[in-house]
Amino acid sequence: MAGLWTRMKTWSILHFLFCYILLVSGFITCFLMSLTLVLWPLNKDLYRKVNSYLAYLWWCQFTFLGQWWSGTECVLYIEPSDLQYIGKEHALVIMNHKYDIDWLMGWILTERFGMLGGSKIYGKKFLKYIPILGWIWYFTESIFLERNWDQDQKTLVRDIQEIASFPQDVCITILLFCEGTRFTEEKHRISMEVAEKKGFPYLKHHLLPRTKGFVLSLQAMKGKIPAIYDCTVAFRKDGAEPTLRNILHGRMCRAEMYVRRIPIDTVPYNDSKECANWLHKLYQEKDKLFDQFTMLGRFSGVQKRTIPRRYWDLIVWLCWASVLCLPLFVYIWNLIQNGITLYQALFVVTLTVVARFFMKWSIGLSVIKKGSAYGKKN
């Protein structure tokens, strides 16, 4: 029976239903978010609270696929003194960017701590124009950059100060990949050539961090966002390869994440050069941590903790599936009973093609080898 269920998870018809639910629920979510724009000039805090819940209704479908469909696990290494703060304060999250689904492991943990709706990102400007995903990031006030420093420094200061004014009962996490792009061997080679020219130590598992945006962000955050959470994620070899395709096919990935809380007031952000050097030293420490994991198959020195799953993402997905699939099944049954017209056939074919395209496009976005060319130039 278990073998049959495992095979069923690879069936294209089930993947079609996942994409259908994700697509239609996404448009519904974006429509509801557009209606909340009237709240912005009247009550900004209310607008933000409502949209954090609406964003959760869509984002949690990804954590459902990870936690419940594929059974993927992400265990945490963290000091008890740091753990007590998670979910109780705004934070800047720094994460390595080595895998297709490192972001999903971050989402899984933020979901377990009840913080998923308050997640923000630093992203390329074009991302906000991507249907559904980009629109939701836009409505929830993520930071979009053009990779033009003269323009981006104004955007960073303005958007960070705006985000920092979020109400305290909506804990936000701003995810920053300081490397600027996903790790590939080609980008790593180029990055280490730059490191050698500038006199920085060699990093085996990371790219050289880009410091200007980080420094300016901290200067804009001072007194408003209290802590940095330094996260280093790695995947065990006894799990499936960490790809979104394997998650969709129900294959379990096994992630482990080492997290350190760093109070922002301990970082020398007032001195740009010292702050940049601090970030370089942090990445040297992260590189040693990751190297330790590759040798031992685990992190060490800190207690390992499994944060229990909540049921909310499962409940939300079941609700979406019930609301959206029942009309679809009734429609298909009526077609079978009464025959199908040309227009109905075109509608079904179009829906199938769109859902399949959306599935392939979503998987393609997460694949490392299809990542941006950023980092391939000195």
From TrEMBL:
This protein's GO cellular component annotations are: endomembrane system
- Tell me which Pfam families the record gives: Acyltransf_C, Acyltransferase
- Which parts pass through the membrane? 12-40, 314-336, 342-359
Which InterPro entries did the record assign? Acyltransf_C, Plipid/glycerol_acylTrfase
Q: Which SUPFAM superfamilies match?
A: Glycerol-3-phosphate (1)-acyltransferase
Q: Does the keyword Repeat apply?
A: no
Residue ranges annotated for the Phospholipid/glycerol acyltransferase domain, each copy included? 91-215
Q: Name one GO molecular function term.
A: 1-acylglycerol-3-phosphate O-acyltransferase activity
The UniProt keywords, alphabetically, are: Acyltransferase, Membrane, Transferase, Transmembrane, Transmembrane helix
Q: Does the keyword Acyltransferase apply?
A: yes
- Family, as annotated: Belongs to the 1-acyl-sn-glycerol-3-phosphate acyltransferase family.
The name this protein goes by in its record? 1-acyl-sn-glycerol-3-phosphate acyltransferase delta isoform X1
